[in-house]
Every structure is written in C-alpha cells, then in structure tokens.
Amino acid sequence: MDTSYPREDYLPAPSHKREASPAVLISPPPRDHLIWSIFNTIYMNFCCLGFVALAFSVKARDRKVAGDVEAARRFSSKARCYNVLATAGSVVLPLLLAALVITGVIHLSKLAQESVGFFTYQFSPSDEADK
C-alpha cells in the first residue's frame, strides 16, 4: 500500500469562514516639523521661538531615529506649539504694527486739517489797533 501521498479521504475540508485576525493599528511616525522650524529660525524669528522650535524638532527627529516613538511624539508636539507661536507672532505683530501706523497717520492727518484753520486765521485791521 502506497502511503506517500495523502488520500482524498484524509484531506481536511477547506473552511469557507475567515478566521478573525487580530487588528493591528500602526500609527504613523510623528512628524518632526524640521522644515517649518528652520523657516521660523531664519525668517522672521520672533523672540527666538523659532530657535526653540528647531531644538525640539531636532530632538524629535533623534528620538524617532532611535525608536522612542513616545518621546518623539512629545518633542514633536512641543516643536509644533513653538512653531505656531513663532509664526503667529511673526505674522500678527507686523500686521498689528501696520494697522497702528495707518490709524495714527489717519488721525494725525485729520488733526492737521483741523489745525490749518487755526494757523491761517487772519487778523483784521481793527484787531491789531485794539492792542
């Protein structure tokens, strides 16, 4: 009797049900925001926040390369916060300064127009004789 090949009687029946495989959620690696930090450091650096963001970005990249995802996520979050502050400060403060200059110029022009009447007052000959 030849037993080297399995017979059809002994083959396991194929299962039509899929076995539930455990779902593995792989989170993407944290972003280090390095380009944004370099931009904030070089261009419009407000109160050195861009440099602080650059330091945290480099730390996040180092931790990501080392495999410490949790520390990389913390440093990435701090880098993002400092980048947002640096960008907002670099955009909002010049706009606020420009708005103050414009409103000051408008106010001074109105004040100058009102004072023109005061300085162009001409004395009549009877006013000079009274003195």
Automatic annotation (TrEMBL):
Subcellular location: Membrane
Entry keyword set: Membrane, Transmembrane, Transmembrane helix
Domain of life of the organism encoding this protein: Eukaryota
Chief place where the protein resides: membrane
A Pfam family the protein falls into: CD225
Keyword Membrane: yes
Family classification: Belongs to the CD225/Dispanin family.
Annotated protein name in UniProt: IFM5 protein
Species whose genome carries this gene: Himantopus himantopus
